[in-house]
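Late entry, evening session. Most of the bench is empty. Finally got around to the prediction I had been postponing all week. Sequence below, unchanged from the version circulated by S.P.
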Amino acid sequence: MMLRYALRTVRHRKGGFLGAFLALMCAAALITACGTLLETGLRGTIGTERYAATPVVVSADQNVHRTTVKHKKGKTKTKHKAKPIAERAWLSENLTTRLSRVPGAERVIPELTFIAEPLIPTGTGTGGRTAYGHAWDSAPLTPYALTTGTPPHAQDDLVIDRYLADRARLKPGDRLTVQSTQSPRTYRVTGIAAPTGDGIRHQTSLFFSTAEARRLAAHPGQVTAIGVVPAEGTDTADLKAAVAKALRGTTAQVSTGDERGPVEFLDAAAARIKLVSMGGAMGGTSLLVAVLVVVGTFALSVQQRHRELALLRAIAATSGQVRRLLGREALLVGAAAGVAGALAGLPLGSWLYGRFVALGAVPATLQHTVSVFPLFAAVAATIIGAWAAARISSRRIARIRPAEALAEAAAERGRPAWGRILAGLVLLAGGTVLVAVLSVLRTEPASTPVTFLAVVVLASSVALLGPLLVKAAAAVLGAALRRTGPGGRLATANLRGNATRMASVVTPLTLLIGMTCTVLFVQPTLGHAARAQAREGIRADWVLAAEGPGVPAGAARQLRTDRDVATEVVRTTVRVGLDKYAAQGVSTAGLARTWDPDVTAGSLAELTHDTVAVSELAADQLHLKPGSTLKLTLGDGTPATLTVAAVYAKGLGFGDVTMAHDLVARHVDNPLAATVLVSTARSQEELAAAVRKFPGVRVVPPATADSLQAERLQANAEVNYFAMGLVLAFTAIAVVNTLAMSVSERVREFALLRLAGATRRQVLRMLRTEAVSVLLLATTLGSGIALAVLTAFSIGMTGSAAPAVTPLVYVTVVAAAGLLALVGTALPGRVALKARPVTVATARE
């Protein structure tokens, strides 16, 4: 019976449920899109290309591990955790001999992989494919076969793949300069090779002679991987088991099938973690925002039907029947919106994945994965959210007596329920605690989720305390509004008499302004502080920057003299235990002339191959001081035990761990310097002439290098902006949706005003005045929330209570919110005023 009545209600009140339907549909689409990203990170396939013809691949372990054993109440619990390292881990070449004796192995092929960028004219490059160098002996792993020319034998011989040859219009006999791990070198193209099939889509290969490949790989006695080809009739699973048995006692890993992809594309394997983190953060924030918006939308929808529900109570409908009616209506609307939104979320998720690939946040080798799970999760979340929102919104009307229900239908209740006020104060206190916690968090992974959670919690407190805030705003603005004429006086009366309705509009506007300002100013706050520290700490006269993979060590050697200092800076990531720290290697000779990270303890003069300098943050977290021993894992998984030589303050600008350049360069995939800091009396022209033989290397002043760093930080920030852009778009839609619902409810009110003598222009002016008042309140609240959160974030991350806020960007955010408020008010208002006042008043009686 109740379900049939709910169906009739939804069918005959389509307009009343449209706002809730749109909010739920957008929420379902957003949850589905974020869910597909999360699933791609968890289950996305990384297909192999280079090892397509090699069923079994042996590689080094790409993780650091920690096992903890706890004894509690007579029971022993063992926990094992693993975290990925930043660079490629290498294998001992001696394993090749051991594997060649494995039964069923027909051929064992060692592999070397290293950066090898062809220096060819801009526009004809690798077409977005990453270029790698290999030894020609490993060509059968794909397999690559010569289509023309001869294999490389001499040190300056080179075989290139067909893709690069076609793009650069190269043929055997041509010369090609390659920037690899050493100084750039010009090679003679001896042949062109093509892979079997068309499986190579994300890389281009350059093949060198075995001796030259070993020189460029710069890992004597080590290989990247080892391919094992089974003999005819040998099952791959049997061969894998035999290889694993032969490797027992080593840390080497054996991969077959889809497991080979992560071994080949380390960036894609690392991107999985990033995508899980990004999808989880976006999905969690989206869910919180959706709950807040949907509850507000349903509350407004129930308020619009207060008269109808009061009549039901007056004709003997019980509280349970009213709750069940509203619950079933919500389930119907939620199911329809959930299905529609989930289906719309699939292309949205694909588009979002494509944008992340274009921005470089996710490599194309990590294939987008879609299943039914995100759809089911979105539909379930939407239905549950709609039902919960309806139950929360209907508590008041379902519990009061019928006579009181009719009285409240005629006029809005003067004061919110004590339960609502108490809940709002609890959320306000919770948000304050989150802000306080944020001010002591000093790492970005820890502070980022708390930042956005604090905004949502504080906005939720605004939603609950909204009626009181609107009345307070009316008291403050009342005198000014009344001076604007009849429209201002009517707007003041509405703000006071319909505070709950106005509060439902204030909430999404507050959330929009607060969230947008937080998203836009979090990264600049961090980036500006890091750049300021870097600017203050760089003492160099000039900086070498590279357009390619980095500055070769030969360029720095070219500039070093008895009077001039050239400090090479190589960047990486290390792990102390399982914790990750940004690290760098610097040339130690004359370091004080080019680099000053503000040493607060110890001395950089003690920085050698056996010592390390750490930031104050790392020193506090790891309880270090000069003379302490630090055990860490270098980028490629090599353990190192170093003595702390110095502690410095500018960790945000220079990283948390600093080691000698040669120590770091031996354990990274790209040993080329990110920058070279030069202290010299020579001119820019003289330096440029000295490094002219190094293609792509430029001599720039420190200010220009700072601008280049700002561009890189901006590119990284764009990923975060885009990630949160969908949440902000959803919030903006909710603002317009709520405003339209609020205005459309007032058709009878407008008709009565027209019958009382108000002109259409005066009614529209009243709506605009209300919109401006609501916008002013929402701007104050949203800006206050954003300022509190950003200040706490700045204190924790930079030590300064000065977030980077760009006035023009802030004004643009407020202007956009104002435009949404005025459009969302004016358009529904004009539609509501089209009907004849007498007809409307008669129909609603």
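Two things to note before I forget:
Residues 702-744 form the longest helix (43 residues).
The CA atoms of residues 166 and 786 lie 53 Å apart.
Will write this up properly tomorrow.
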